[in-house]
Design a protein that fits this description.
Strand content: 5-15%
CATH architecture of the largest domain: 3-Layer(aba) Sandwich
Strand order of the largest sheet: 3-2-1-6-4-7-5
Number of domains: 2
Oligomer: single chain
Largest sheet: 7 strands, parallel
Number of helices: 10
CATH class of the largest domain: Alpha Beta
Number of strands: 7
CATH topology of the largest domain: Alpha/beta knot
CATH superfamily of the largest domain: SPOUT methyltransferase, trefoil knot domain
Radius of gyration: 20 Å
Amino acid sequence: MNISLAHISVILVEPQSPGNIGMVCRAMANFGCKDLRLVNPCLHLHPEARKFAVAANHLLGEARLFPSLTAAIDDLTLSVATTRRPGRLRGDLLDISKVPTLQQKLPPEGRLGLIFGREDSGLTSDEVALCSHAASVETSLELGSLNLAQAVILFLYELSRTPKTSSSTIMAPTPRQGEMEELFGQVESILTRIAFLNPARPEAVMNRIRQLMHRAAPSQDDLSLLRGLCSQLSWSLRDWKGRKRGSS
């Protein structure tokens, strides 16, 4: 069987070892995955990276560099943060075996991104919150973290076992991750204006709103409705002086 994960993007956030980047390229080439995105990486064209990439050297040269995770996932339809650390701000973690079902929800031209964090500390809670989903691999409690390239190959293997299928069903247009971020920006601005957010920890509420919206999987029309609603609310609040002191 000719395996191709051409609709999958692999995103490495601040990778620290050129050798690991090279090994990730080799893993990607094994599964026909060609889109490597690097967020503030170490020297990815270092000879060590080329050494470990072996026959996948071309992916190093084709890798795209981004200044932030937000920019790297802007054009994706779905994104999966890979993490082994649970937490209230990280939402529910999918088991790796459930990730392949996400690619079945992609529109014909949609892309799914797999996001991997730093070798020593992984992804922050804020970075996990930027993604539409989060997933984990169950490992030993004694040594839970995986090598970066090992984690990449595990997720690519799972995706290859349930290939993306073409559907004759007409699907409603799906918002890009960047468009969802624009909505969240509007929501946060309004909630800050009405003093609903704790200025010291706005993520305590905003991360839950992100999770709720991603679970709802809004269509492009739904997103337009919500953005119009937020725009009208912002306009209505323009002369509001804020909550009166002492009011409940």
